[in-house]
Structure formats: C-alpha cells, structure tokens
Amino acid sequence: MHIIGATYDINEVNKPLAEMWVESRKVEQEAADVPTDLIKIPETFKKDTKWKQWKDSLTTYLYSKTGQASIPLAYIIRDNDVSTPGLIYPTVHDQLVSSVILHGAEYNTNNGVVYDLLQSLTLNGPAWSWINAFQRTRDGRGAWKSLLAYYEGDAMNTHSKQECYEAIAKASYQGTKFHFDFGMYVAIHQ
After folding, report:
1. How much is the pTM?
2. Are the C-beta atoms of residues 144 and 54 closer than 8 Å to each other?
3. Hey, which of 76, 107, 149, 154 would disulfide with 114, CB 3.0 to 4.6 Å?
4. Strand-pair category, 177-179 with 172-174
C-alpha cells in the first residue's frame, strides 16, 4: 500500500490479508521463474526518424523487467506523476506501473537503473545530449521526460512539418506521373 501511495489503516492488517499477500508473492515468484528473454533489449537509438519505434520498443522492454521491490520498471517512464485515485486496473502489473510512488529508496534505485539503460542505448547518438544532462544524478525519469519534450514537443513537430513542406516543394511532375518521395514522408510521420 505504501509503494502505490495508498492510504491504509494498520488495523486492517490482519491474518487473512497476510495470507493473501503470501499467496500473491508465491504467484509472483512463479511468474518470475518464467523466462522473459522473449522481449529483447532495444537497439541503440541512432536515427531521429526512428524515435517512435524506439520509444515503443523501450516501453515494451521496461514493462517486461522488474526492479527493486519487484516493481515493473515501466513506472519510471509513465506519463503521470501522480496516480488517479479510485481507478480499477485489470492487473496488479498495470496498477504498479500506474501507481507506484515516485520517491523513496525503491524509486531511487529503479530510477538509476533506467538511467543506465537510457545512457547505454543513446551514447554517442542523436539523443545523447538530452540524456547526458542527467548523468550526475542518474535520473532516468528526468532523462526520459527530456527525450519526450524534444522528440514529441512543439520544436520537433515544427521541424517535421518543415521537412514535409520541403519534400512537397521538391516534388515534381514527370510527364503524367507525379514524383514524390513517399519514404521521406512516412519516416517523418512515424
């Protein structure tokens, strides 16, 4: 309850609750013994035009990996800072990703692990300057938000639009055929 930031009454901690948690931990342990090597670590981020695919790959990877206190590491890169009270989640996994508090010992450890992963996947690439600013503090969440602000913010949208307009301007009619670099258009909009 503490890890997800929920209020609780110590008087509610009783034997049936303890037994339920013991059973839940057994199930979690059995699930942890199942090989998770089906989901591979994302490729190194090398091209700005591949941001969306790389982001999706990293998110999937972090959903599959658990950190300190058996918390899925995806909570470090979630959108919201504070969970919405009263939401019902389809799984405990989803609840943890959406609700775990973003402070404390577990968070500090997991946040550093995510930073290390981001650093290793962006080193010497186009996103490195956005990650490097968080190196001293090993702030994975801060680094992730910095990447989102750049790659999904107004500046990048303006830049992508400009590239599209330039591609359209360079398009030409060749007889009755219209020549347009559709690959450039698709890459910009992914």
Report:
1. 0.72
2. no
3. 76
4. antiparallel
